[in-house]
Amino acid sequence: MMNYHRRKRLTNKLMFTLTALCAAVTVGILLFILGYLVIKGGGALNWGFFTKLPVPVGETGGGMANALVGSGKVLLLAAALGVPIGFLGGVYLSEYGSKTSGFVLRYVTDLLNGVPSIVIGIVVYTWIVHRQGHFSAVAGGIALGIMMIPIAVRSTEEFLQAVPASLREGAFALGAAKWQVITTVVIPAAARGILTGVMLDLARVAGETAPLLFTALNNQFWSEGWSHPTATLPVMIFTYAISPYEDWHRQAWAAGFVLLSFVFGINVIARLALGRGRIAH
Amino acid sequence: MRSILGRSIRPADTIAYLITLTASGGIFGITALVFFELFTGSELSRAKFGWNFLLTQVWDPVAGVFGALPFIYGTMVTSALALMIAIPIGVGTAIFLAEQAPPKVSNLLTFLIELLAAVPSVIYGLLGVFVLVPILQSVVVPPLQTVFGFLPIFQGTFYGVSLFSAGVVLSIMIVPFVVSVSREVLLTVPREMKEASFALGASAWQTTWKVTLPYARKGIYGSIFLALARALGETMAVTMVIGNTPQIKASILAPGYTIAAVIANEFTEATGDLYLNSLIELGLVLFVVTFVLNGFARILVMQTSKASGRV
Questions:
Q1: B286 at the A interface (CB within 8 A)?
Q2: Tens of pLDDT along A192-228?
Q3: What is the DSSP string of A59-97?
Q4: CB contact, 8 Å: A161 with chain B?
Q5: Which residues neighbour B256 within 8 Å (Cβ) at sequence distance 6 or greater?
Q6: How far apart, in whole angstroms, are the C-alpha atoms of residue B304 and residue A208?
Q7: Model pTM?
């Protein structure tokens, strides 16, 4: 009997120490990644990175100004395509969808969310690039835009659902029609959350590389307008990382640091914004 | 007055409804379009090779012969390795967060682990090439080979880039998915179940092992399927550390290739329609497999949350 209890206590302690260890490993990896990029990437970063074009192999210096602008352009297009569709889909789910249609749309959205990003790249290639005969910022924007839709749908739905029923009822009681209730009461009440969701969505696709390989491609120079091959930060990191040149590796770390700062920055800000929003309720 | 107002507003209501309905239809349309483009785009290779495409292992663009087996093999091996590492660590972490850690600590750690999921794939690749591969080469693989070198899977010279390296990178990338979904389903286990177990004299671990985990079983399987679907389609980080060699070797220390990696590397350079069609068919394979896995996973996770009344 004594033995049983001792073993029970021992197993208890051992197993929970192990689970704590697992958590420590997982969080440790994150801290390592963060620390490594800050030291290695931060060290390689200079003002020229933000203002100069890439230089040919052999010359040192240069930057990724074109990739920063390129990423901005592609993300802008992606948001212009993905956010409205996702937002309206979310409104449908939250305000109009019946049990069945809501379930089906939610399911399809989740499945679209699970499609590997490289597959989206293929599809946009055959659909746009192949037909037009050239790579372009537009094609890149469409690829990332499609990837933004599912998260936009789900976060919009979530935050609209969180709006208290009493607010809607109040508006209905004042004689407002359903569309008026939605546009003047429900959406404004959820605006902060939805906007945060969109930012997180952008942060998620900002680091996508695979779908851009066949759509926006890359460019060592400035690309004018929207219909030329366009450099983006993630593709640049990939190209520079697998090159054999020391100086390009240094640039890849710098670019990795900038990209990670952007992604983490948005995540932290979103967390703070939502945290405060929730307390205010 | 009311009825007049009501009637005059109705068309606007219909329009608002139709706008959101159109957007929802568009989401269906895009998903269907993805499948359609992959299906029609792979027509040539499907007609020429049939099912043999999946079963033969010669990939020779010059001769126009395309067999996807080496890529399928590489994808399966790296994903299996990733799951073997990620499941214990992920589920362990989830148990700690859901059962042991105080709520404030748990929330903070969960946020940090979710940040891990936000790290772009290409950055994992960067770290994989310049940090993980050297560590594996100098610290991990030599002792592994001394102890387990007699096993075929650990034989041969280790060049750094390998199926093993890709599996390790993938495992780190999918851990956050296992953790966040598992933690959520563990948290939905009703308090009464655990209290009943404690009242019978069970220790905390016994309760976790015999009550909480079995109750959340389906949801945890769901999280594993989600993570697997992620691993199968992961491209950049794998491409950077796997060695990109289309071969089937028993050793996990040998270089290999995955479906996603070969698409990433060869797609823009594919000359000829058959070559391009074959690569698109690889995309179709990836699409169908992840589609089924994700669909399955969602159902499992939904069943768990429904069972505990938290739809």
A1: yes
A2: 999 999 999 999 999 999 999 999 888 888 888 888 8
A3: ------HHHHHHHHHHHHHHHHHHHHHHHHHHHIIIII-
A4: no
A5: B70, B73, B74, B77, B78, B162, B163, B166, B242, B243, B245, B247, B249
A6: 32
A7: 0.91
